[in-house]
Give the backbone structure.
Amino acid sequence: MSLVATLTQPLRSRYSESLDQQENRLSQYGVKEHFIMDTPNLLSPDDIATARNSSGNTASIPVINDETMVIGNTRTCTQVLNANTSALVTIAWTTYSFGFQMWPGQFKNNDLGYQDDFDKKLMRGLKRLAAAIDSQCVALLEADKSTVVNSGLVGVGAKYGALVGDAIQVTAGQGNLFFNDLSTIMSENDHYGDIKVAGSTGLQSVVNYSVNQGETNATNSRFQFGPYAFAYSNRVVNGAGIAATGYAMPEGSVALLTRNTPDEEAGSRAEDGTEWGVSLLPIVNLPLGTKVSGTCDDGSALQGGSQTQLQAAYKQSFQFSIDVGVISAYNSDTVTKPGSIFKFEIAQ
């Protein structure tokens, strides 16, 4: 077992609560988690493997455009060609990394133990990395939201009016029963079955209120939530005058891909003792590349220069990194053809 795997084991199973526990509180990273879970619904195992093994190369996924096909009313000996048009979707990668140093000699006669210090530093990096990847996923939803909504419920003079910023506008009074209409809107755009909703934290209030209006209430609004699964994130931000924002999509709409370097995948070791590896870590819930090295260094200046026992001491350096690519279901004509991600905003 590698050094990283051994050191991170306590963090996987528990995290001790103490006086500073509020310093380490986590956020909601629901959009990132939705992307992770939806990946095998959008991409094949071969697509995922190709992306994972693409370090140093461009990773592209082939697709075929939807084409117009005329339905005639006569039989013929000569068929129209009706050829397919293919395209390539190139994955755009973002590299994330963080790291820290450990001085084992610092913990002799110290109330703070080595494992405590390691856990705190790793937790600090993991929660910020999770937020950064969550933000990347939210940015993709915003960039790839459908600009076209084919529905009699949406548009000038319709129940929900025209789109504003490509988002369905829901008044405060319409919010309690909007999800009943949303399933209809999705069906009118040929999206059927279960619907995933990635929303702002404010959306929780709307959903919780409506779910708890059951049969014994004057207005029963619980019935509308059958096809929905909700994920929330503090990175989905409400605009001015908006109480809740969400992105609704059918299963198989988004994916999150990762890759590591060849040395990390191979578990390489250098002559100086540097060790590479890959470890699936909590909070981020993705395979992070790891690099651990050790050397002699002067750490006497640590903590205000009081660490004279570290003048020539053993120093460990830890680095955690990953490449992340996020994509959505391919749409060959975003101007006239509805996509699979529909944004909505519920007013205050």
In short: Residues 146-255+329-347 form one domain. Residues 114-144 form the longest helix (31 residues). The chain has eight helices and twelve strands. The radius of gyration is 26 Å.
